[in-house]
Design brief:
9-stranded mixed beta sheet; 584 residues; 3 domains; GMP Synthetase, Chain A, domain 3; 4-stranded parallel beta sheet; alpha/beta; Rossmann fold; Luciferase, domain 3
Length: 584
């Protein structure tokens, strides 16, 4: 096709009333809609209607039935191309369990990627691994100590064909989704047909309230749940046409994302906060955009930061973007994808609280404009739960906190979207659930106007002199102090407890000039003293030092280990370590 698939289905909209993904594709194939793949300049590369996707998937499935036994795990390189969608759905028709795999660029270098891939193949007990021919060498190298064969996509398509299909039923598995990789051993989260279809129904019928006029646009990686579930499987379950650009192209040309929304009148699109921030930084006012069609600009994948989103809304408001289009949400792969959505047209429901009370007593005390406090932070409400799902916030004694308790606790979930656990990892599965059967997300939050406010990960907290220090506070203060010459920041603690603990801050710099480095050090030190008020040991490091997970998040645990192993360069290594004291 020389044109993208249309927005109009040509059939009655079905909002996910399917028991399996193959049932969903069987119906979508009767529609005119489908997937469209664009390059970094917004030029259409391939348009693949759902009818073509089904025909190709069925053809490959007949080849895979003879290739591998039912329920065998297939590692599948999750490239943003038609071949990935074909092979993922071919596995569904053949009764094989695909495990979408991240790509080398996301994991901080070839050696790191190979170690991660080897662990995934080991924990998933892969029968085979499918990848583009260009990726065969690195994947074969990673698996050279195993008997796992690596086949190129073309080799898979050329396997001998049979006549039988072996599609998954409603009670079968669907896929294995690997955790983001913030720990050294990634865990394979089990997705079942029931959990996946339940979550997709919740997304399209409740969270996004999809209608006949909607069209999706995405640059999100397909190896992460927000890309795979939110922008491949949920559109499939609601017959949405979806326009894709490669994540790497997005980082180079983020405005192409907005251009695609403009060109094809996209209505639904998601990004972590940093994606909106990148668009603000790269905007050159060199084109005319009409973003008035964008009715749901989702935010997920990390903590919702209101400041960059407000900047985005103010910059693109003259081009039709509405601040009320922002749709904060919360979710995690262990609940397939989505757990909560902000109500339609709510926008950013902000809540500013006294962080001193939060850090010392886990109390939520609102700060108004008439009050003065040296330490406040604004959070954003992430909405309400999906129908047929339950949310509780529990304190350290596992007691459920009432909606009016004004206290912080761990977010716990229960419902049909929740995964049964981790593949062949009973210890991790047991640890993920409370004794009464709720998923303990490990995320902290509180209730505000009957909506969930997510404040961070429990394991990332730095306990210092009775305070719960958020590493994000330190990192954001550093980045705000020197935005033009600095990249990512990472804060973590090392050493003992209390006053024996050292808080480290690593800050990427795009310069090696000693004078500029000294200026950055002075500016960042002053900002930390003012905004955080704890002693921090500052180290300026080269760009691309940080380790990023498959979902684009900073992996503090792995950066910390890299630092402990002596694997991080200090750009000022000929000078004493910079210690930012708690007072000026």
């Amino acid at each position: 096709m020389t044109e993208p698939t249309p927005t109009a289905r040509g059939q009655v909209l079905n909002l996910g009333a399917f028991d399996t993904l193959t049932d969903a594709l069987d119906y979508a194939a009767t529609c005119d809609t489908g997937f469209n793949y664009f390059d970094g300049k917004g030029r259409l590369l391939t348009a693949m209607p759902y009818a073509e996707l089904r025909a190709r998937a069925v053809d490959v499935a007949k080849r895979l039935v003879a290739f591998a036994p039912k329920n065998a795990r297939i590692g599948l390189a999750a490239v943003s191309t038609p071949e990935f969608a074909v092979l993922f759905m071919a596995c569904q028709y053949a009764g094989l369990v695909p495990a979408p795999l991240p790509l080398p660029v996301t994991l901080g270098g070839r050696s790191s990627y190979e170690r991660q891939l080897e662990r995934m193949a080991d924990t998933g007990d892969f029968f085979a691994l499918f990848a583009p021919a260009s990726m065969e060498p690195i994947m074969s190298s990673a698996l050279n100590d195993t008997a796992t064969p690596v086949l190129s996509f073309d080799e898979v398509f050329a396997l001998p064909s049979g006549d039988a299909l072996r599609p998954f039923g409603p009670d079968d598995l669907c896929y294995i989704q690997y955790s983001s990789g913030s720990s050294s051993s990634p865990k394979g989260i089990i997705g079942t047909q029931k959990s996946v279809t339940a979550n997709c129904r919740g997304i399209v019928a409740h969270g996004m309230a999809v209608d006949e006029t909607d069209r999706a646009t995405s640059w999100l990686p397909l190896y992460h749940d927000m890309g795979l579930i939110g922008f491949m499987l949920a559109p499939l379950m609601s017959q949405l046409s979806t326009d894709y650009m490669d994540p790497t192209d997005f980082t180079r040309r983020p405005i192409t994302w907005l251009q695609l929304i403009h060109d094809n009148r996209g209505t639904l699109s998601y990004s972590p906060t940093f994606g909106y921030e990148l668009c603000v930084r790269r905007w050159r006012d060199d084109r005319a955009l009409d973003l008035s069609c964008w009715r749901a600009a989702g935010i997920g994948g990390d903590m919702v930061r209101p400041e960059p989103l407000t900047e985005f809304a103010e910059l693109f408001e003259p081009m039709g973007f509405r601040e009320t289009a922002f749709t904060p949400s919360y979710g995690l792969a262990e609940t397939t994808l989505a757990a909560t959505f902000a109500p339609k047209n709510q926008g950013l429901l902000k809540h500013t609280i006294d962080m001193d009370r939060y850090e010392h007593a886990n109390e939520v005390v609102e700060v108004t404009e008439l009050q003065k406090t040296s330490h406040a932070r604004t959070f954003v409400a992430c909405g309400v739960g999906l129908p047929e799902h339950e949310i509780e916030i529990r304190d350290s004694n596992n007691e459920v906190l009432a909606h009016d308790s004004a206290r912080v606790g761990r977010i716990c979930l229960r419902g049909p979207s929740v995964s049964p656990g981790y593949f062949r990892n009973s210890q991790a599965t047991e640890a993920a659930f409370t004794p009464d059967g709720w998923l303990d997300t490990g995320d902290l939050g509180y209730w505000y106007q009957d909506q969930v406010v997510v404040t961070g990960r429990h394991k990332d907290l730095i306990l210092y002199h009775g305070r719960n220090i958020w590493p994000q506070d330190i990192e954001w203060a550093a980045q705000a102090a020197a935005p033009h010459r600095c990249g990512r920041a990472c804060a973590f603690s090392v050493g003992g407890a209390g006053d024996q603990k050292t808080i480290m801050l690593l800050l990427e710099c795009r310069t090696r000039d000693p004078k500029l480095l000294a200026e950055i050090e002075a500016a960042v030190s002053a900002a930390i003293r003012l905004e955080v008020g704890v002693p921090v040991q500052l180290q300026l490091v080269p760009k691309s030092t940080m380790i990023i997970t498959s979902s684009g998040k900073l992996s503090r645990a792995r950066v910390k280990q890299k630092w402990l192993d002596g694997g991080i360069i200090d750009l000022q290594d000929d000078q004493p370590l910079k210690v930012v004291s708690a007072s000026a």
